[in-house]
Amino acid sequence: MKIILTHEVSGLGTAGDVVDVKDGYARNYLVPRGLAIRWTKGGEKDVEQIRRGRRIREIATIEQANEVKSQLEGVKVRLKTRAGDAGRLFGSVTPADIASAIKDAGGPDVDKRRIEVAAPIKTLGAHQVSVRLHAEVAAKVGVEVVAA
């Protein structure tokens, strides 16, 4: 099935790309989550608009990505959340929570879709997350989760 990506999907492409995927992957995963739309001749007109929006938001060069990476790695991120007696959180820390904590700590504005959490953060303490800034540049950010 031919689809148009509306967001970046790891291993598949970036927003505005027209790709061929298996029918079930598109129908059951990409389209319901809003990551893609079905390709049509009318939808082809939207591709340029999506690409124009992507160019505005993205970090264009590796030098810019390395500059943002150095800013991110220099920021001490503390995230206050509710936790039980044993140090387990009520719920988990989301990429949106991490993005707002980075901004509150004085770091650069980071899109929550670029934050990759290896395993769900459900305990207090220090954790590492990766921020994909460019196709070739990723920053490791330390997040300290403390009880509120």
Description:
This is Large ribosomal subunit protein bL9. Binds to the 23S rRNA. Keywords: Ribonucleoprotein, Ribosomal protein, RNA-binding, rRNA-binding. This protein is an alpha+beta fold and 148 residues long. The protein is 30% helix and 30% strand. The protein contains 4 helices and 9 strands. The chain has a 4-stranded mixed β-sheet with strand order 4-9-8-6. A 3-stranded antiparallel β-sheet has the order 2-1-3, with no helix packed on it. Strands 5-7 form a two-stranded antiparallel ribbon. β8 and β9 (138-147) form a beta hairpin. The chain is globular, with a radius of gyration of 18 Å. The protein starts with a strand and ends with a strand. The model has no long low-confidence stretch (mean pLDDT 87).
Q: Cα-atom Rg, whole angstroms?
A: 18 Å
Distance between the termini: 47 Å
Which series of helices and strands comes N to C? EEHEHHEEHEEEE
Unreliable parts: none
Assembly status: single chain
